[in-house]
Amino acid sequence: MSDFTEEFPARLRTAGVVGAGGAGFPAHVKAAAKAEFVIVNAAECEPLLKKDRAILERFPEQVLDGLELAMRSTGAASGIVGIKRKHSELTARLEKLVRTRRNVSLSLLGDYYPAGDEQCLVYDVTGRVTPMGGIPLDAGCAVFNVETLYNASRASHTPVTEKFVTVAGAVRRPCTLRVPVGISYSEVIAIAGGLKSDFSAGIDGGPMMGKVITDFDVPVNKCSGGLVVLPKDHPLILKKSLGRPAFSRIGRSACDQCSFCTELCPRYLLGHDVQPHRVMRSLIFSGAGGELRSEHALLCCECSLCSLYSCPENLSPRDVCAAAKADLRSAKVGFRGSSIDSGRRPSVHPVRDGRKVPVSRLVRRLGLSDYAADAPFIEHDYRPSRVRIQMRQHIGTPCSPSVAPGRTVRKGDVVGDLPPGRTGCPVHASIDGTVVKANEVCVEIEARR
C-alpha cells in the first residue's frame, strides 16, 4: 500500500490506536477523513487530571510527529496545539519546538471548563462553529487527544499496550503513571502509595464526566484518563451516584426554571439549540418513571457543568438530559428531522466569554480544594502478575477473542479483533504470559514467571 492516506489509517487500526481522552473513537477513522486543520486537544480541563501535560513535558517531539502524520494523512494545511496559557514553562518550550515544524502553531487557552470540549476547542482556536448535530470534521477540523497522537507516532512499530493515567484525590501520593493496559485500579492505587482511608470510592475519569466506582478491581483500558479517589460520603460521590428515580423525583419537585443550566451551557453558548431547563420542565409532564421526549436534550454533550456547577438547587440537569436522549434513541428519534433541526447556522452568544467557568472556581464548588495537589509523573518498576484485556475499549463493534486459554502470548500480540469493515480496532497483550481466560468480555493473561 503506497498511498500514505491509506497506509497511515491502516497502521493506526493495526496498532489499536483509539481516542485516549476518554471517548475511544478509533483514530484511523479520523485519519482517513479530509480536514483543513488538525487540532491537538491539550486543554485537559477536567480538574485534578494531569496525564496530557505529563506526556507533553516528556514526549513533545513524539506528539508533534503524530500531529504531522495526521496532517499529512488528512491533507490539513495547518496543525494547532490547543493548550492552556497557565502552563507557562511548557508552553514556552512548545513555542520553540513548533517553530521547527512546518505550518504548526500553538493556541493558548484560558483556564476554564470545558475548554477541552472539542466543539468549544474548534471555535476557540479557529473561530469556526461546528454545525448543530455535526462533528468537528464538518467544520474542517480533525481533533486528536495528546496521548492519541503520541500513540500514532509509534504505531508503525508499537501497538497500544500501555496507558498514561493520573491517580489523584485521597491517595497517599497523587501522581501520573504509565502502566500496562489491563491492570486494575487497585494496583494503580498501590503504586500511588495506597488509599488514605478504606472508606473510599473512585471516579473513573475526571470529576465532571467520570463514573463512580466502588470496586477498584476495574481494569485500566485504552480510554482511561485517570482515577479520582474520594471518601464515599463526599458530596460529589453522592451526587454522581443518584439513580434515575431519585434525580427525576427531586428534579420534578424542586426545579424552579431559573434557566441557569441553559445560560451557562457551553454548547448553548456556541449557538446550539440545547436547553436543559426545558428538559427539566418535561419532568413535570412525564409522570413517575415516565419517558422523557424533550428534543432539547439531543445536543447535550454531557459535560455536567449544569449539574455540578450551574444549578442553584443542586439538581441534575445533565442526568435528566442523558435519560431523555436514551428515551429518544429508543423511540428512534435523532437530531435529523427533529423539531430543533431548523437548518439555521449557529450564532455564538455575544457574552460567551463572560460565562466561561474558571476551573479554580469549579474546584471549590466540587469540594475538591483539599485534593487539588499536583500529580507529577513518576517512574516505577511494578510488573503485574496478570492483566485483563477488555474486548470493548473503543466506540463501535467490540472485539472477539482471537486466542484461547493455554495460548502463550508476547506483549504486543493481538488477543482480540473484529471483522474488516466494522468500526473498531484490535486489542493487544500488554505483558508476556499465558492466556488463562478468553470470552466476549475480556482476555485474561497470567504473567510468565
Q: What is the CA-based Rg, rounded?
A: 22 Å
The percent of residues in helical segments reads 25-40%
Q: How many strands, what sense, and barrel or not for the largest sheet? A: 5 strands, mixed
Q: Within the largest sheet, what's the order of strands?
A: 7-6-10-8-9
Give the total of beta strands.
Answer: 18
**What structural class do you assign from the helix and strand content?**
alpha+beta
Poorly predicted regions are: none
Report the principal-axis shape.
globular
The number of helical segments is 16
Mean pLDDT reading:
96
Distance between the termini: 40 Å
Strand content: 15-25%
Which features does this protein show?
18 strands, alpha+beta, 449 residues, five-stranded mixed sheet, 31% helix, 18% strand, four-stranded parallel sheet, single chain
In short:
The chain is of the alpha+beta class. It has helices at 4-15, 27-31, 51-58, 60-74, 88-98, 118-126, 146-153, 185-191, 235-240, 244-254, 260-263, 266-269, 276-286, 305-310, 317-330, 359-366, and strands spanning 37-42, 78-84, 104-109, 112-113, 141-145, 162-169, 175-180, 200-204, 211-213, 226-231, 357-358, 386-390, 400-401, 408-409, 414-417, 427-428, 433-438, 442-447.
